[in-house]
Design a protein that fits this description.
Jelly Rolls, globular, 14% helix, alpha+beta
């Protein structure tokens, strides 16, 4: 993705979260220069890759296949410095903006519609040991109520609804056309986007960045590129 588009999408995300009255931490608005002033005290944010994440999953068409996320809190497996066993994200999902089919080998997560439009989630039965989708019905909890689904079935989360996803639940989601942008929350086990994503259709999780202008806000995956003095847990 071009840096100019990343900058624009983050600005749009900030505006959307504000409209939805979802308050981000103060450092969500930090510029690289602002980070430089506090770098000695920002190890936890940097190490746990908290903050902005903008991806088009290699599609070069963010509005059709893409996602804007902000990681609010996280832990680090095996670390005595950051032993939190949980993570939390907030997302802006647009109408018909697809996050491709994927599952996680380790992470269990609740996906929550926090407001705005409706979120459509297509669900599939995964076999994490073989990294494939498999036939057969499976059970899932929506708003805490168990139901049985077949591969490819859709659920629609309206504001306040949630679904609990396990490693066997491969999922693809997007905003319902005509319902507006969706404020989507994620509460999960520790999140590791580098090693705990299996995208069924082979798309990349992160996009290379084309630097056509200066960054207004750094992506969470970029801290170490800009601040070599970040310590490692």
């Amino acid at each position: 993705m071009k840096r100019s588009e990343i900058n624009r999408r983050i600005r749009e995300g900030i505006e959307f979260f504000d409209q939805m009255n979802f308050k981000l931490p103060p450092w969500a608005l930090f510029s690289p220069a602002d980070w430089r002033k506090v770098v000695a005290d920002a190890a936890e944010i940097f190490e746990l890759q908290l903050g902005w994440d903008v991806t088009a999953f290699g599609s070069e068409d963010f509005l059709h296949t893409g996602l804007l996320l902000f990681t609010l809190r996280n832990g680090l497996p095996g670390s005595t410095l950051y032993p939190k066993p949980y993570a939390e994200k907030i997302m802006m999902v647009r109408e018909n903006q697809v996050t491709p089919r994927h599952f996680h080998w380790y992470k269990r997560e609740d996906i929550i519609n926090r407001g705005g439009g409706n979120l459509i989630i297509e669900l599939f039965h995964a076999d994490p040991e073989r990294n494939v989708l498999v036939p057969g019905k499976f059970r899932i909890a929506v708003n805490g109520l168990r139901r049985e689904l077949s591969p490819g079935d859709r659920i629609i989360l309206t504001p306040g609804d949630s679904v609990a996803l396990e490693p066997i639940h491969a999922h693809r989601f997007y905003g319902e056309p005509g319902s507006g942008n969706v404020l989507v929350g994620e509460v999960s086990m520790v999140n590791d986007d580098t090693t705990d994503n299996c995208f069924i259709d082979g798309v990349p999780r992160f996009d290379p960045v084309e630097e056509d202008e200066e960054p207004e806000h750094l992506l969470a995956a970029e801290y170490r590129q800009h601040f070599a003095e970040v310590r490692h847990a």
